[in-house]
Amino acid sequence: MKTIKFIDLFAGVGGMRIALERSAFKNNISQKCVLSCEIDKRCREVYQNNFLDNDFVEDIKSINKKNIHKIVPDHDVLLAGFPCQPFSNAGVVQRRYLNRPHGFSDKKQGNLIFNVIDILRHKKPSAFILENVKNLGSHNKGRTLQVILKELRKDFYVPDPKILNAKDFGLPQKRERIYIIGFKKKKSTEFNYPTPTSQRTSVGKILEKKVSKEYTISDRLWTGHKNRKIRNLKRGAGFGYRLSKSNEPFTRTITSRYAKDGSECLIYQGKNKNPRFLTPRECFRLQGFPESFKISKYKTHAYQQAGNAVPVNVVTKICDNIFNYIFTTSKNLKKTA
Ligand SMILES: C[S@@+](CC[C@H](N)C(=O)[O-])C[C@H]1O[C@@H](n2cnc3c(N)ncnc32)[C@H](O)[C@@H]1O
C-alpha cells in the first residue's frame, strides 16, 4: 500500500485534512498527519475533538528558518489555506477604511504566505495545495500572485493557479476560490486541475428537516435587511440580503461573518413569514463536511469556522488528481509492503 505523510497549516477546523483523508481512502493510500498549525484556540478545540492527536504548532511565526528542521517533520504533502482577509475584497475595503495596510503589507496576516514558502523550500514535499480567495489573483493588479508564484517556482513545478467553484463539484454553494498546486518534480505530463463534476444538487439537499424557531430572524432584523436593500439599490451599492429557496441550485458564498446578520443566505419560509438563518450544521453541509463532524457547541464560533473552511468536495478532487500525478509518474513516495 502507498503511504503519505502530510502537514496541515492554518488548519482551521480541518477542512483540507478531511478532503485529503477522503481522497486517500478512495485511492487506497494510507495517510498520516504529522503536524497541524492553527493559532485560534477555539478552532484547535474543534480540530482536536475530531482528529486523533498529532503534533501541533500554534503560531506559524514561531517556525523560522533556523528551527524549521527541528519543528517540521518530513512530509509528502503540505496543505495551507492561508488567511484571506488581507487579500479579499471586503478585507481590503475594511483595511483602507481603517487606514491599515492590506496585502503583504499587513504584518499580522498578509505575509504569512512567506512562512509557508520557507517551509516548502526547506522541506521540499512532493506536492502542496495552497488555497485562498479568488481576489488573491487580482489583488494589486495581479502583482501579489505573481510574487508568490515567482518564489514558489524557484523550487517547484507550479502550473498556473485555477479558480474553482464549489457549485461545480456537487455543493449547493457559489464559492469561488483560487487553488495553487505545486510539485517537487515536473513529470513528462502537465498536471491537470479537476474538471467540474456537474453533479446536480439544490439548497434543499443541505437543509435540516426540523429547525428550531430560534433560527427565524426577528422582525427588527428583517425590517433592517429590507430597508438596507432599498437604500443599497438607490445608491447602486451592493446587493443586501439574499433569500434562498430549497429548489435553487446554490446559495451565495457563506463567510466567517454569517452569524452577524445572515445576509449572505436567509432561508425563505413562506409568504408573510420571516426567513431564517441556516443552522451551523447546514453551513458545514454547504462546505461538504461529513455528518459525523463534531461542530462547536457555540453557535457563533461554529458559523465562523464553517465560513472560513474550504469546500471539501473541491479539495478532495484536487487531491485525487495530485495522487494520480505523483503516484503514476513518480517514485519519490515510499511504498510499503
Ligand atoms: C482560511 S482559515 C483556514 C480554514 C481551513 N482551511 C479549514 O478548512 O477549516 C485560516 C486559518 O488561519 C489561522 N491563522 C491565522 N494566523 C495564523 C498564524 N499566525 N498561525 C497559525 N494559524 C493562523 C486562522 O485562525 C484561521 O483558522
Q: Care to describe what's here?
A:
The protein is built from eleven helices and nine strands. With about 325 residues, it is of the alpha/beta class. The chain has two domains: about 1-195 and about 310-330, 3-Layer(aba) Sandwich (Rossmann fold), CATH 3.40.50.150; about 205-285, DNA Methylase, Chain A, domain 2 (Alpha-Beta Complex), CATH 3.90.120.30. Helix 2 links the parallel strand 2 and strand 3. S-adenosylmethionine binds near residues 15, 16, 39 and 81. S-adenosylmethionine binds near residues 14, 37, 61, 81 and 308.
Bound molecules: S-adenosylmethionine
Low-confidence stretches: none
CATH homologous superfamily caption of the largest domain = Vaccinia Virus protein VP39
- Strand % is 5-15%
What's the helix count?
Answer: 11
CATH topology category name of the largest domain: Rossmann fold
Task: Write down the overall geometry.
Answer: globular
Measured distance between first and last alpha carbons: 6 Å
User: How many β-strands, per DSSP?
Assistant: 9
Major sheet: order of its strands?
A: 3-2-1-4-5-7-6
Query: What is the average per-residue confidence, as pLDDT, rounded to a whole number?
Result: 92
Number of structurally distinct domains = 2
Largest sheet: 7 strands, mixed
| Structural class category | alpha/beta
Rg, rounded, reads: 20 Å
CATH architecture of the largest domain: 3-Layer(aba) Sandwich
| Helical percentage | 25-40%
Order of helices and strands: EHEHEHEHHEHEEHEHEHHH
What is the CATH domain class of the largest domain?
A: Alpha Beta
